[in-house]
TrEMBL record:
Domain of life: Bacteria
Pfam family, one: Acetyltransf_3
SUPFAM superfamilies attached to this UniProt entry: Acyl-CoA N-acyltransferases (Nat)
Domain annotation N-acetyltransferase: ranges: 9-168
InterPro entries according to UniProt: Acyl_CoA_acyltransferase, GNAT_dom, N-acetyltransferase
Protein name per Swiss-Prot or TrEMBL: GNAT family N-acetyltransferase
């Protein structure tokens, strides 16, 4: 089981008893407004089961870590990464926080821990972060971690009837703070 710590947070491997929180977070329309229309429970369960499986960096699958407060053991959300391109040493990062964890710096803090760990554990040359153009909070998380806006991917995906522009951010390993 993987565990990473910051001053306020514990990041740990996903466990079977995280199901209710995983479901609640993935069905919340506010949390998912810039990502997707919330899926049916059966679809979310398949994703959850897949993410419980043993993980290797080379697999190309998402590593999903639970974010919890160290002091209270309160579940805050999820963070992680996947190897987007092994030959180019690119890893894409992501995070999803329950609304109770918004605005407290948890996403920024947890992302920094994941990046630092990945730099020590794998030969990552570049980290990639994507966020909807209108998702200002997510863009700030990336920017606070040193990511630079590299471009806008116009009408990159659709949520219901709305086309979403994605901001593509990059961070070279040697640029991290």
């Amino acid at each position: 089981m993987l565990e990473l710590y910051t001053d306020r947070l514990r990041l740990r491997s996903l466990r079977r008893d995280d199901w209710e929180f995983f479901l609640q977070t993935h069905q919340d329309p506010i949390i998912n407004q810039f990502v997707r229309r919330p899926d049916e429970e059966s679809v979310i369960l398949k994703k959850f089961e897949h993410r419980l499986a043993p993980w290797t960096y080379e697999s190309g699958d998402w590593l999903t870590l639970v974010i919890e407060e160290v002091d209270t053991k309160t579940l805050i959300g999820f963070t992680g990464l996947y190897c987007a391109n092994f030959d180019c040493a690119h890893a894409e990062v992501g995070y999803m926080l329950a609304t109770s964890g918004h605005g407290k710096g948890y996403a920024t803090e947890s992302l920094k821990a994941v990046i630092d760990w990945a730099c020590l554990s794998f030969n990552v040359h570049k980290f990639i972060g994507l966020c909807a153009k209108d998702n200002i909070a997510s863009a700030k998380v990336l920017e606070k971690n040193g990511f630079k806006l590299e471009g806008i991917l116009r009408d990159n995906y659709r949520v219901d009837d709305s086309w979403i522009d994605d901001c593509s951010y990059g961070l070279l390993s040697h640029e991290r703070s």
